[in-house]
Amino acid sequence: MAENIRDRGLEHECKLSATRSSGPGGQNVNKVNTKVELRFDISASKILNDDEKDKIFKRLSRYINNEGELLLFSQESRSQIENKETVIEKFYLLLEDAFKERKPRKKTRVPAGIKKKRLDEKKKQSRLKADRGWKEEK
Q1: Domain-located, residue 18
Q2: Domains of the chain: total
Q3: Is residue 44 part of a domain?
Q4: Which of 24, 74, 75, 137 could connect to 87 by a Cys-Cys bridge, CB 3.0–4.6 Å?
Q5: Contact 30/58 with Cβ under 8 angstroms?
Q6: Strand-pair partners of 18
Q7: Which CATH number belongs to the domain containing residue 88 in this structure?
Q8: Which domain holds residue 45?
Q9: What is the pLDDT of residues 109-127, one digit of tens each?
Q10: What is the pLDDT of residues 44-72, one digit of tens each?
Q11: Is 115 domain-assigned?
């Protein structure tokens, strides 16, 4: 992906709402809506292509509800504005991580010398324990 995800303006497709927070704020918590919730309808996005939508569904499934919306919350601050900035930053960080190309895992083999050494150690330990055993005299 050549262009930066932040330059596409995805926050315009997000729905932000504020509710009462359980975070810090004293009596302010009971009066002011400081918790910010971000909802992003992945399927309805006109900015993302199908490949990017599939990556989001696969890699961010724990943040997606039954309606296919990406849900994020922020209630770290006493300020609604700060929480809004935090949740938008979190949104972009998650998308950047989801779109990052993963290196395929290379299968590796255990070297023959290491296998032989492990088996020799097992035989040595087995002999040691066998010699400790009670021997019956005839």
Answers
A1: yes
A2: 1
A3: yes
A4: 74
A5: no
A6: 36
A7: 3.30.160.20
A8: 5-99
A9: 999 999 999 999 999 999 9
A10: 989 889 999 999 999 999 999 999 899 99
A11: no
